[in-house]
User: Fold these one by one.
Assistant:
Number 1:
Amino acid sequence: MKREDVASFVKIRKKQCDHLVCYQTCGTYSVQIKPPFTEQTALAKVKAAEDAWNSRDPERVALAYTEDSEWRNRAEFFKGRKAIKEFLTRKWQKELDYKLMKELWCYQGNRISVRFEYEYRDANNPKQWTLGIFRGRIDEKKGYEC
């Protein structure tokens, strides 16, 4: 499935089904994609996450994670949505022109693995790139990342 097909899939789904729940907030539709994943819903989950991160809106990104989500970023460890928002606010104040690309690696049941790369610059340096792998478990009832 092509990336533009995933975007169309997310946009046209405006009703509840087994794996995709859409709800209206502030006049736009937010998408909650729940496991177990199919190829189509796993790709849609990755695209929705990529779009949220590229918005650089800490509130929007944090809402995709459980209230008690545990994060590690290099040597920093923290827990919960409030800490996630604080971390992302600091991150995007330093990392200017942030742009993320996510690519589905594999999925099974309520687990998903994503390869990611992002670029940014800081106030004193040219563009920098970071590459990595995200492996996550998705809450089956609410669709949030744990």
Number 2:
Amino acid sequence: MKTKELLGYSTVRSFGGYALPVPIQTQLLRTYCSDKNYIYKLSTVESYIKNNYMFLNTLIEEAPNQGDIGMCSVFMLPQKNKFEDMQKKIETKCLNFHFIFENSVVNYSDLWNFYMNSRLRFIQDNESYKIEDLIKSME
């Protein structure tokens, strides 16, 4: 049986209330791969340019069909409008996403619902957000 590869993705941005240094994200991905019998492919690190997901887009484009991409959290994915564009590429390649903090492996066909449900939970758990703001962001 061939061992599958997990392509890692890290960011210097904060996500979902966390601000983890890239070496910590890398170690979490390495440990995850070791525990789940994946070969870890070193993380692509996103630059700190607001609303720029160039490296994530490249990772999706270069991933093999039915490949696996790992990251610490679903909150590392971009806002809805940019994510919609990525989702088309993800579906075409039938990619799976591994989210360590959410303890979830999500296939391409379930990713949109997982993404939207996660955003709803984050808003509900964080009193500084209003449900009206969430609705506007989903339009």
